[in-house]
Amino acid sequence: MVLIPKRRRKTLYDELKRHLREVFHDLARRKESQIIEGHMMADHVHMLISIPEPRMPDNTTKSCASCGLAPRPFDSVLYGSYGGPSRLLCGRCFNLEAARRRGLVDFEHIDFEPSTMSDARGREHVLQFRTHLFAGGVTIDAIERNEDQSESYWFKLIGNEEGDLFELLARLVTKMRQELACTHLEEGAYGLQINDRGIVRARIESDPEGKTDMPAVVIDGRNISWGEFGRMVATYMGFQFKLQLRDLSDDI
Ligand SMILES: [Zn+2]
Q: How far is 219 from 225, CA to CA, in rounded Å?
């Protein structure tokens, strides 16, 4: 993608560049996309963006354009630049290509084995790992998928692209243990309610049933509709609360 200021004036200087860099990364993240490469010139901006494939059913016949294998449903990337053809790549081939383009000769893609962990209620969760290179470094995601292909628990960390992936994984596993041990909801007489701590940490997701434009919130790995969440806070009439939006890789 190439962005050009009006009449191609040379208006993109240091402070503005820094600001725009943050804005572009933020916008990409909101669409679950990542900027793989970006170059800011005085009069134009050049970006290569990876966009995840929309959720595909398990019996999908789409295969990776490079190795020919079917990518895992949460680990396929549409790779291409604006206006040109795009190719569907599996996570491994995507990383190898991204590393080659950026001259990261030492980058080694690792497929981590899924991990099973228990939450505070003793329920087991199978988390699958996904590693992607992007312009800001490397991300590892740990994703639990429901039968309907929606995501339940989802953890993420961002590391240095030249750092040790096993060290990043170890930090992610620590974060997963801490967050799984901490619950926010409990069963009450009238269904799910916010527990005594009075704190809710949630992830904003698209509604798995897709019937409305309203998002779902995922709390304790459960999809909660906006209406259900409204019912949960209805018992706190007259209270106040703070809503702080943070990236999935941040500690909250
Ligand atoms: Zn592949």
A: 10
- Residue 64 CA, ligand 1 centroid: distance in Å: 5
Cβ-based neighbours of 2, under 8 Å, separated by 6 or more: 44, 45, 46, 47, 82
The per-residue pLDDT for range 183-206, each reduced to its tens digit, is 999 999 889 999 999 999 999 988
Q: Which protein residues have a CB closer than 5 Å to ligand 1 (ion)?
A: 64, 66-67, 90, 93
The pTM score is 0.78
CA 69 to centroid of ligand 1, rounded, Å: 6
Q: What is d(CA 201, CA 179) in angstroms, rounded to the nearest whole number?
A: 10
- How many other C-beta atoms are found inside a 10 Å radius of the C-beta of residue 213? 7
Cα angle 237, 239, 242 (rounded to 5 degrees) comes to 125
Q: What is the CA(66)–ligand 1 centre distance, in A? A: 5
